[in-house]
Amino acid sequence: MEQTTQPTPKKRILSAIKPSGELTLGSYIGAIRNWLAFQEEYECVYCVADLHAITVRQDPKELRRRSLEQLATYISSGLDYEKNILFIQSHVPAHAELSWMLGCYTMFGELSRMTQFKDKSAKNADNINAGLFTYPVLMAADILIYNADLVPVGDDQKQHVELTRDIANRFNGVYGNVFKVPEAFVPPVGARIMSLQNPESKMSKSEVDANGCVLLLDKPEDIMRKFKRAVTDSDREIRFDRENKPGISNLIEIYAAATGITREETMAQFEGKSYGDFKPAVGEAVVELLRPIRENTERLLKDKGELERIYKEGAMRAAHIADRTVAKVKKKIGFIV
Ligand code: TYM
Predict the structure, then answer these.
(1) Closest of 11, 16, 164 to residue 86, by C-alpha
(2) Distance 17 CA to ligand 1 centre (A)
(3) Mutate which of 12, 15, 17, 146 to test ligand 1's pocket (most atoms within 8 Å of Cβ)?
(4) Which atom of ligand 1 lies nearest, measured to the CA of 30?
């Protein structure tokens, strides 16, 4: 007799970026680039985390522009909006609802230990709001609401995924197997792209020195200028050594990530070459990496109607999964549903 086998359901991925500033080379190499690799094998859910952006004050017009631009960038980087679910977080209210519930299963002490909270409250001393503190709970809700198996993030978000696992385990410990306990995926190369001007700190959209941060939509001449001015050291060797040669190590990391080779291959390729040769070569590799993204994003942003169709469809598909999880959680907790 012929046997019918059920296809195994695909594993699911969830990740997000907050539109609190322009996207950077760091967010591309640390996150989006890796998302692309998963779209065949996994069911992927990627969101524009606008709820997360308001822990620091945002100009409403700018937030709207950046949210749309970020969605367009996801698509222009190569994420297929039919294969993946692409949406804007605030369009799926279930995230905020689950976040409240999970907050009651998260400890004050756990949130106080989050390094990002400590960093950000030091930087925003005049606005240490409750959202800044409870932000990792919302991130846990983003992940657990889709029963994600894997969460691709850069190094700085690993601690938040660890906390998500703790929250899921705690909740499951009380109510049975409700949430899938997710794993973080941190890429072997490019998990921590550093500032070009201050290679001891992360390249970030909130960086003070604009030359330290390469934006995803920067023009080629700006990218080249930033790399030519990148801080290096007085040594002459192109060698990976984060501790003693942070500037050069960061450039090696960027070159390897941009061209898809390893650090060792990069070092071999530039053996005996000077910093004066290497810096523009890294710039050129990044220009080529980002060129199609910038051109496609510009094109996509001209068709607002198409983008609206995409995010509405994405929100509907996301809500379909998210609402079911929230209903299950409410039932387990003891709410009348
Ligand atoms: P965000 O918006 O700060 O950063 C988005 C993603 O980019 C990575 N990243 C970097 N990777 C390498 N080098 C860098 N310099 C660099 N800068 C940023 C981050 O690690 C991240 O993967 N809370 C999150 C957004 C979020 C989220 C989620 C992520 C909201 N909900 C659920 C995963 C799952 C954040 O602020 O990332």
Answers:
(1) 16
(2) 5
(3) 17
(4) 11
pLDDT level of residue 205 (50, 70, 90 thresholds): confident
Q: Is 205 a catalytic residue?
A: yes
In the predicted structure, residue 78 carries a pLDDT above the cut 90: yes
H/E stretch holding 270 reads: none
Distances (CA, A) of 201 to 26, 133, 193, 325, 335: 12, 22, 9, 38, 46
Tokens of 241: 């050594």
3-class DSSP string for 145-190: CCCCCEEECCHHHHHHHHHHHHHHHHHHHHHCCCCCCCEEECCCCC
Residue 218 has phi, psi (to 5 degrees) of -60, 150
Q: Which H or E run contains 140? A: helix 130-144
Give yes or no for residue 156 CB within 6 A of ligand 1. yes
Residue 126 tokens, joined: 């005049």
- What string of DSSP letters covers 53-74? HTTS---HHHHHHHHHHHHHHH
Alpha-carbon distance of 73 to 293, in angstroms, equals 7
Exposure class string for 293-318: b at 16+ Cβ within 10 A, else e: bbebbeebbeeeeebeebbeebbebb
Q: What percent of the chain has pLDDT over 70?
A: 99
User: How many CB atoms are located within 10 Å of the residue 37 CB?
Assistant: 13
The CB of 150 under 6 Å from ligand 1? The reply is no
Question: Whole-structure pTM over 0.85, yes or no?
Answer: yes
Q: Give the tokens for residue 280.
A: 């523009």
Closest CA to 17 of 131, 154, 127: 154
Asked if 102 and 94 touch (Cβ cutoff 8 Å), the reply is: no
Is 154 in contact with 26 (CB distance < 8 Å)?
yes
With a 6 Å cutoff on the Cβ, whether 193 touches ligand 1 is yes
Question: For 319-324, what is the mean pLDDT?
Answer: 98
Distance from residue 274's CA to the centre of ligand 1 (Å): 33
